[in-house]
Amino acid sequence: MSFNGKNVGAELKKAFSTGVSYMMPSVVVGGIFLAIALSSGTPTDEGMVITNPFLKNLNTIGVAGFAMMIPILAGYIAYSIAGKPGLIPGMILGYIANNPIGDEGVSTGFLGAMIVGIIAGYIAKWIKGWKVPNTIKTIMPILIIPIITTFLVGMTYIYILAQPLSGFVASLVDFLSSLQGGNALLLGLVIGAFTAIDMGGPINKTVTAFTLALMAEGIFEPNGAHRIAVAIPPLGLAISTFISRKKYTQAERGMGVSAGFMGLIGITEGAIPFAVNDLKRVLPAIMIGSAVGGGIGMLQNVGTYIPHGGLIVIGAVDGKLWFFLAMLIGSVITALILHFTKPDLPETKAPVKK
């Protein structure tokens, strides 16, 4: 297996697009069912509590859709690179990346899943090129390749890749803690940016842990900034798909509707499909938008009294008007940044006049 930089770049771009296209239905199904279920919930200090038995079942379906989302992404990234032998190793490894491992409970979310999906794809592709006896060829794609690929990449992730991230997250907690009691605007900007940076992954959850720790001490404003920021990435992208339609495929515009629902109920993961397809433009846009929203929230002393976000919890917010305005302003900023940085799709550009 030979590597050419240009070819690998094109292959990776195709792999990400494949992963997203197969992941989209899981995001849509999970998001819609969660939106319906959580919309009936009651805000409590434990989050949104659903009491209706039927809606609890809808919530179970929605949670399952989200649980499948990341493994599907990693699996089909590997599938795009290596074909069928890469599919199951990618899914298994994506599941591992998205769930806590070891005594420290390290999780790397969608970024880790993308990495292991890529590695699994190339390892499986490499093994496919091995010259083996004809008697073994028939079991290579269903037995030999999946087992070797899953073992090699799984052990590499567990023993090499996961631990450095754990150190990074620990450093991040220390950094956030050092900002406690400091400049309100700076703290809000940092909370907002780090809330958006991995869209529900370990960094986002670190910010959640930080704000919950402050809530236990009776400090609710950082949680307010965080709960504003969690909604901005999906809401900003939903607005972007509406005002900048020429920059998105029909499937992505449909995803924008689902992202909007998820933003309203505080599910940051609604932005993931867009980020995977165009990380270099989407990530700065959502980080800036969430940072602005978080900063406004802190400046205006917005406090949220429950561990959940989005407009769905506005009844449990101190400073409701600024909670809404900060979320709206941050979302619009995200959409405007994407409007000016994201190019039109080739098929939507007007023909050049000669």
UniProtKB/TrEMBL annotation:
The protein, known as: PTS system fructose-specific IIC component/fructose-specific PTS system IIC-like component
Membrane topology according to the record: Multi-pass membrane protein
InterPro entries: Bacterial_PTS_Sugar_Transport, PTS_EIIC, PTS_EIIC_2, PTS_IIC_fruc
Every PTS EIIC type-2 domain range: 12-351
One Pfam family this sequence matches: PTS_EIIC
UniProt KW keywords: Cell membrane, Membrane, Phosphotransferase system, Sugar transport, Transmembrane, Transmembrane helix, Transport
Keyword Acetylation applies: no
Chief subcellular location: membrane
Transmembrane segments: 20-38, 58-79, 109-127, 139-160, 180-197, 255-276, 282-300, 321-341
Annotated localization: Cell inner membrane
